[in-house]
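Recap from last week: sequence in, structure out.
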Amino acid sequence: MKNKKIEIAVISIILILQTIIYIFVGTKKSYIHMDEAYSMGLASFDKVEIQDNEDFYNTWHSKDYYEDYISVQENEKGQYAQVYENQKNDVHPPLYYLFLKIAMGFSKNGYSKWPGIVVNTVIFLAITFLTYLILQELLENEKYAKEKSAILALISAITMASLTNVIYIRMYALSTFNIMLTTYLHIRLRKCGKVNQKLLICIGLSALFGSLTHYYYLFFLAMMYLIFTIKFAKEKNWKNLGFYTLTMAIAAIISLAIFPYSINHMFFGYRGQGVIDKFKDISMFLGNIKNYLAKVNRFCFNGIGIGILLLEICAYIYLKMRKIILKNTKKDLPQNKECIDKNEMIKNNQSSYKYETMQNNHSSDKCKIIIAPTLFYFLLVAVASPWIELRYIMPICSLIFVMGIYFAYILLKNMFSEKVTNILLIVILIAIMISPAILKIEPEVMFSDKKEIVEKLSNELNLPTLYVFYSKNNRFLDDILLFTKLDNSYIAKDLEYSSENINQIFEGKDTSKGIIVFINKDEGNEKVLDPLCKTLNLKNVQFLKRMNACNIYYVTNGSN
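Predicted structure tokens:
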């Protein structure tokens, strides 16, 4: 793309296309995860959990009671102090929740998934552009570098990992942006021969925003800082090292001044203590790495990551073997120059050192800047994350994709002509795009399997609902969306199943058409259902759905 206007037009088309895809995928999102409910509640409610309300348990509520937690009410618009207060009492910094609160304020009809999805969609416009810039840096010596960068940036934006990142209403899209921005700025810093004040200010701001978004970002930043500290020290460039370190120190001071509770969260909160304990369990750490690699294969490369990796390993071994053979052949050549076919020797030399040249060019330094922090982040998250979930590695998924495809391209290029390499790369990218349909992979938080139960409870079975709630399994927010659809619901905490208690709960309620029962205990549900049926004169129990944290039953008198 020699013409700047054409380049801008192509990038604009890519951003518009990905936005259309994001909106389409967003329409398919049928449910929310517990942590997404937390996002909305922490951004809009007056306390961390709705369960902290004094009247939450053992009282009948309408759907508006629960919707209040995951939506901004008219009298709450423009009030942002509670966002800060909630995050102080939770385990995350506040920046993302501030953006979400602003977006939720535009929703006029109560709960909506769209404010969160729109925020992430806008953020991903910047992520895709940064991906394009990073790819340009890696491919700057290649033919049609901008065209290839644009295509790869688009594919990166629509992998299952990226689609999940967009429709998952959490801070991970913003954290992805921070990591991509930090990466690109440090690649630019690597190219600078002298101190660039504007660049250092941008790096400082990216560090500040990153630390106020998610603490895992600091894993990435710490390794990036170490790389550049070593680089400046080796070059004895003490001036650059001083300014760079000062930039990071100022960013840290401002971050702690804005949100000093970070120290308590990271080192003294239950999450921080949990991370320290996990470092002691090596077997669990190795198991987590294996499980996260499976996530990378499935979502970063849409299920064909193992195939791409095997291709790269085979290509690398082949090039190494070819280099050794050519080197040995060169030693065995006769000393009489007249016996040597000069053209053949030149051809052999070019083939022999082509791969070595690739390793030694400027892109090698850029790769190190990307790989080391990404790998460090991945390994520490494998230890630190409380569960094996894609969300914890989503901030580095774009970089994993970029490096995976970049290495495949470079290795293929050293085996084949430019034309053949491009054809093979196109085949790989097409395989990535079509594999979700073949392998039946969807974004992790689309919850298409829960669409039917949401519609059923919203319309057909909007009946008096009892949630038999065991406090030891407190994951109510996994089910809160369903309760925003129900006109009458009752959360019975640690219920004793006596006829007296059951009659007291359903006094004045019409149970002639049946009731809905939620039970957040995996075993022994008949011990709850049998007394309910006996007391309320109900006979038929129909299992409806296993949700994230509970079972749902439809209980009737048998005539419905």
